[in-house]
Write a structure and sequence with these properties.
By secondary structure, the chain is mainly beta. The protein has strands at about 5, 10, 20-25, 35-40, 45-50, 60, 70-75, 80-85, 95-100, 105, 115-120. The protein has no helices and 11 strands.
Length: about 120
């Protein structure tokens, strides 16, 4: 059973930064897949945030985070990270990772996610 574990969330003021990590606990080698980050704000559907290719190149982003967020992979550690800068209150939500095709999540099950709250 594939298990992805997200971490690194917290409470941050507008303009601040956070770095999220997604570790594959079992059943998956992240180096073999295109990996993505998603988020779900209260009362809204889960949305695509960013993704990166199996090799760690060719990142792509939702328009709302372009220029502020950066996705990266560490295949040796079997993790994928999301560096979030210039955070805004609209970035608040629970952040999840998953294998993706384009901006579509592939695995039907999700981890517990990590909460990001941007507030003064």
């Amino acid at each position: 059973q594939v298990q992805l574990v997200e971490s690194g969330g917290g409470l941050v003021q507008p303009g601040g930064s956070l770095r999220l990590s997604c570790a594959a606990a079992s059943g998956i080698l992240i180096s073999n897949y295109i990996m993505g980050w998603f988020r779900q704000a209260p009362g809204k559907e889960r949305e695509f945030v960013a993704a990166i290719s199996w090799s760690g190149g060719n990142p792509y982003y939702a328009d709302s985070v372009k220029g502020r967020f950066a996705i990266s992979k560490d295949n040796a550690k079997n993790t994928v990270c999301l560096q979030m800068n210039s955070l805004k209150p609209d970035d608040t939500g629970v952040y999840y990772c998953n294998v993706v095709r384009g901006a579509i999540p592939i695995f039907p099950s999700w981890g517990q996610g990590t909460q990001v709250t941007v507030s003064s």
